[in-house]
Amino acid sequence: MPGELWEALRSQALLGTARKAPDLPPAGGPLGDLLARLDAGDPEGLLLNAAGVVSIYRQAGWEPPREAASLPAPAPEEERTCCSECAAQHLGAILSGRFPEVLPEWLAAAAAAGIRVPEPLLPALLDEGARGRWTGDRHRFLPVLGHRGAWLARQNPEWSWATPAGTATPDEEEQVWLTGGREARSLLLEQVRAADPERGRRMLEATWREDPAADRAAFLARLRTGLQPQDEPFLESCLDDRSSEVRKAAAELLARLAGAAYCSRMLARLEALLTAERSQEGRKAPRLSLGVALPQELDAAMKRDGLSPNPPGNSTVGRRGVWLSEMLGAVPPSVWYDRWQTTAGEMVAAAVRTEWRKALLDGWNVAAYRYRDTALAEALLRQGFDETPWGELLELLSPETAEGIILEQLRKEHGLFGESTDANRVFHLVREYRRPWSIPFTREILAALRRTAHLKTARNHWHIRSELKSFALCASPAIAEEARHGWPEGDQNPWGNALESFLDLLHFRHELLQELSR
Amino acid sequence: MPDSWTTEQVIALAPDTSSAKAGQGLATPRKWLNLGRSEMAVWGECQGSGKDPYQTQIDLSEPAFRCSCPSRKFPCKHGLGLFLILAGQPTALVEGEPPGWVSDWLASRTQRAEKKAQAAAEKAERGDAVADAAAQAKRAASRRERVTAGLQELELWLRDLTRGGLAHVQTQPYSFWETPASRLVDAQAPGVARLVREMGSLPAGGAGWEDRLLQRLGRLSLLLEAFKRLDDLPPEVQEDVRSVIGWTRSQEELLASEGVRDRWAVLGQRVEDEERVRVQRTWLEGAATGRFALVLSFAAFGQALDTSLVPGTRFEGELVFYPGACPLRAVVKNRLGPPSPVGPVDGAASLREALGGPATALAANPWLVQYPLAVGGVRPALSGSERGANWHLRDYEDRALPLSPRFNQGWQLLALSGGEPLGVFGEWDGRHLLPLAAWTQHHYFNFRFPGGDRAG
């Protein structure tokens, strides 16, 4: 048998012919005849040539073995049509590193157009979706994967993110929850919370005691999805957790639950510190004024509720100011409108007149965002107070209102960026406004950029140059063509490559959207 | 006129991934002026960093590229960008008469091709070899002597090794292999030198190294035996032996002989980086003859590789095969028309059937290392544990053919299949198949960098 022959040859070759002359087991048939013709009196030659002959014989006769394991059933037929060659080209370019920030837009447009991604691009797209930066956003990929993509994803554990909770069986889910890594469990929790918040929380409670602190903090953050009053008892208990990360995460969530005991506690504390009255004092109409006292010290209950003895950002207002802000951030602004019989605008104006305006406005900033209070957001933005995190407030307003506020501020600066601190503030406002710009807004901003570009001092404004590309992600691609004109030529152009990248990106978005809407 | 150049095919022409990316960056009509096309050519002007725009053109009959930019890469990013526009947005190209700088180039190409054919024909007629005959014979005899001496020396080394046993070989330093290899190069037997060097990397190759090494030693021994009897061997076997040892044949001589005419499909292609040179291996299959052919082209690092054979296309033409017992290597003698997309490819119906080809070839030429394999109706599958996951192909008999561990596009292959059978073409080396292309009913897909990026 050739297998035995080879075994014999191999072991003899390892030993060497010096130790022992080669001794081949007999072989029949043509192979045996051929081997018999080798010179037995030449041990090295015999071994080597026999090895050559037998190895060729075995290789020529090799048959692939049978595999018992069954293969998965084929993927179902696709319903969506495949995207065009050109659109696939765009996606391929994005996935291999050309303007990767545009991916969400491509995915949304493709999903809306009812198309799917061609098969050869699926692995790259699934790999991309697995990356950490997409946490919380992975649903964007799902529509364009098609049946083939979902089928493919089920076969690679690294692509489990693409298998929605609904399709995994309860057993599979339990398996992942009990034995998976933090990332996989986090993902599963997110999916389950989105579908059935109660079940999600129960799932977390079941393994809570055994999980390490870092995991617990991460999972707690996921409870933000589907946050509901029934979560309150569990979250309250987390305020006593031994890990500060967990306590912090719990406080953050409780602060968003309007009717919770947490809010009532904060409100009780604030009632002792804030007063409001209306006085005329020789004015035409009575005006609201606020009396503010800062909390004296931190008691145990306050610490439990997440206020820290040495909070960050205490340089301008001191830690007691920060405590005030944090307490304000946990109370829905509507409480104050009721109590003080006032409106958002009046309240903000009154706050500005106090000594502790920064603490108050910082606090209400957070409250406006947490409780999605558009009136308060608008009031805060309009009074133009410094150091507010604009982006979050702008998000709350309708696009028309937000754009209106920004353009108002811009006009105050004569439509220029960078020439003064106020002008810089407007620039930052634009930068924080991360939603798709309307066409008129885009035109105005472009006009302002052009005017700024023509200034002699333009080159000094390096912050403008570095932000241009992010503008290109929000600007309306419909006017990509128009955008090319009006800039200073050649040497006079202060922003060189950055401008070129800006126009490139804008044009790329225009092209890919055009192609997808065919 | 094939309008069906795909993006994949164009990207495949790029010399490295940074060129591919740069080419993609130029694939927007916005960056071009005067884009146009005719039946056989595509052209455009691209603004670069210089004063005048670069003039780029493509002769689609091959394809061949020309660009006035100073880049030494080939094809340059402008050529790639222009070609991508043809593939993705053909309406951006205006049909019409080519401008002067395009028609001039096309005309000079036709002229050059005609002159070349003429010169080759004349040379064959004249039989230039007459004057050099004596000198050539002397050189040939001298080489034969040196090779004989070199191989005799190698035989002694081989026997020593066999006496001592393979177990000792594992601890030998690299010079153990390198010294005999360089002596073989001096003896004008570079092919054997390469075999010895390759053997040197086996002892460190993990489980089963003794089998692999013994196989190669065995075949080397057979080669030495064959050389001793060279003149008694049939002429085709002589050719194979000479070829393995390192004798080469002149392409000119070859081109003068009779070719095999067929509709040749370009099934797959890959590039191997050797010591000082890059080798491009292109596989073709004849529709009528059913023969496989391997066309090799060489380029120094940084130089252009031949782009005239594009996987996924086919053309009517003549190939001349290098002589041998199982002829595979060939050169393109002429083409009788432009390339068109390759239609459905026939593969063997089962894995065992497909392996019949390599088996027959091995019987004719025992020193064959790689053989082309085309098999239809297979499904890719992953087997093994997390760590040692391996891809293989499953046919209707449920037999499994392992794919090369160097193949890193298993998921793309699986995506193309979707669980349904498809066809795969690749190189079989006796242990693994390295896929170079796959086809379904609607799609021909070329695996361009099957071992990783070429650019490294």
Q: Topology of this structure?
A:
The complex is a heterodimer of chains A (518) and B (456).
Chain A: H1 2-15, H2 29-36, H3 43-61, E1 81-82, H4 85-95, H5 103-112, E2 115-116, H6 122-130, H7 142-153, H8 170-179, H9 182-195, H10 197-207, H11 213-222, H12 232-238, H13 244-254, H14 261-271, E3 274-279, E4 287-292, H15 300-304, H16 318-329, H17 333-340, H18 344-352, H19 357-370, H20 374-382, H21 390-396, H22 399-412, H23 421-432, H24 439-453, H25 462-474, H26 480-483, H27 496-516
Parallel strand pairs in A: 1-2
Antiparallel strand pairs in A: 3-4
Helix pairs in contact in A: 1-3, 5-27, 8-9, 9-10, 9-11, 11-13, 12-13, 16-19, 19-20, 20-21, 21-23, 25-27
Chain B: H1 7-12, H2 17-25, E1 32-37, E2 41-46, E3 54-59, E4 64-67, H3 77-88, E5 94-95, H4 100-126, H5 129-164, H6 175-186, H7 190-200, H8 209-228, H9 235-245, H10 251-256, E6 260-273, E7 277-286, E8 292-300, E9 313-321, E10 329-335, E11 340-341, H11 351-364, E12 371-383, E13 390-394, E14 400-402, H12 410-417, E15 422-428, E16 433-439, E17 444-446
Parallel strand pairs in B: 1-5, 8-10
Antiparallel strand pairs in B: 1-2, 2-3, 3-4, 6-7, 6-9, 7-8, 9-10, 9-11, 12-13, 12-15, 13-14, 15-16, 16-17
**What general outline of chain A do the C-alpha atoms trace?**
elongated
Q: Looking at the chains present, what oligomeric state does this protein adopt?
A: heterodimer
Report how far the terminal alpha carbons of chain B are from each other. 36 Å
**How many strands, which pairing sense, and closed or not: the largest β-sheet of chain A?**
2 strands, parallel
**What number is the mean pLDDT of chain B?**
87
How large is the share of residues in beta strands of chain B?
15-25%
Helix/sheet category of chain A: mainly alpha
Given the structure, what is the number of helices of chain A?
27
Q: What radius of gyration of chain B results from the CA coordinates?
A: 24 Å
Strand order of the largest sheet of chain B: 14-13-12-15-16-17
- The poorly predicted ranges of chain B are 451-456
Query: Total number of helical segments of chain B?
Result: 12
Largest sheet data of chain B: 6 strands, antiparallel
Helix fraction bin of chain B: 25-40%
> How do the helices and strands follow one another from N- to C-terminus of chain B?
HHEEEEHEHHHHHHHEEEEEEHEEEHEEE
| SS-based class of chain B | alpha+beta
How much β-strand is present in the residues of chain A? Answer: under 5%
Largest interface by Cβ-Cβ < 8 Å = A-B, 62 and 67 residues
Cα separation of the termini of chain A: 67 Å
Mean pLDDT of chain A: 86
Please count the beta strands of chain B (DSSP E, at least 2 residues each).
Answer: 17
